[in-house]
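Notebook entry, structure prediction.
Reason for the run: the old model in the group folder had no record of what sequence produced it. Starting over properly, with the input documented here first.
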Amino acid sequence: MIRVGLVGTSLWADSMYLPALANHPQGGIVALCGRNREKAEALAKCWNVPQVYTDYRAMIDSARLDALIVATPNDTHYPITMAALDAGLHVLCEKPLALNYAQAREMAERSDGLALKNMVPFTYRYMPTNRYVKQLINEGYVGRPYHLNMRYYADYGRGDQYQWVFDSAVAGSGVIADLGAHWFHLARWFYGEIIGLSCSLNTLINRQDPPDGRDYPHADDVAVVNVRFANGAHGVLMVSTVAWEGTKFGQTQHMEFHGSGGTLYTSIDWDAQQEVRGVRAEQRNGLQTLPVPDALWGGARRDTVHNTYRDVFRTQNHMAREFVTAIAEDKPVYPDFAEGARVQQLIDAAVESAQGGCCWVDV
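New structure, fully documented this time:
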């Protein structure tokens, strides 16, 4: 049995990692670490985790772990991961992998040099809709790729309360790292390598000071990125935390893919269902619904994206469950730290472009 430690006691840890590994046949979470002992103990009790720590170093040293999951703010990813690698642990680390490309590259090189399993969980690649789009593109539905348009609208940044994801000292950069990391990964997955970009970043909300009262560098809450792919295609990636879509879960995603062979559209509303539409080149009958094959659902609920999302990660062999399986069976696992480092390089390039007045940056 693979003994896993989890650093982080956030809602994400509670809703994603702990339930996902509560019934894995080859391993589970045996130790939990959080800065607030009372909160950590309550969460551990809820999920039957026997060991609780407030210092990740102590947990690494004494919990007899095989692997570690790092689900903490961005500025802690590098030190926690490097400590775990030094101890010979396999590591799954949340995106963005680090505060900058130099850190991310070092993390990737260290883990590969030690032959340890490593993973960055870009969650949206696992959704049935996106996996179907990837399948259709691979099968030639859009033909030669011409351009894509990907929009991620969220509303968690509309208020003026302090959030660490908009604190550059903690997050590194704002929405371009938080949501942009997903979009860079998916864009490359769909259309291939990105070789250059131009980015505009904006901070629309003046947020309150953190609880400690310090002045902090406000990070971006809206980003628009123009990208060029190695195959000649263009793309526009937009991510926003201040978009009001009027949905319960405050998120919608929209993607459009055009090429010589046809067009694909996807729409993901977290309160409702996800769908794929398409039309072949030269057809004039408009976009037609393309049902996602049953095999890609894998038994996940289809009533809302929110429920699909939970089922995909809690019952299927994806993300944390796939990570444990890979360790137990000594199989490759992806997306890995090398992918996380490449995405971090694109994030850094986007920030460089924005600081240079939306200048073009070759990557």
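Summary: The CA atoms of residues 31 and 51 lie 5 Å apart.
The old model has been moved to the deprecated folder.
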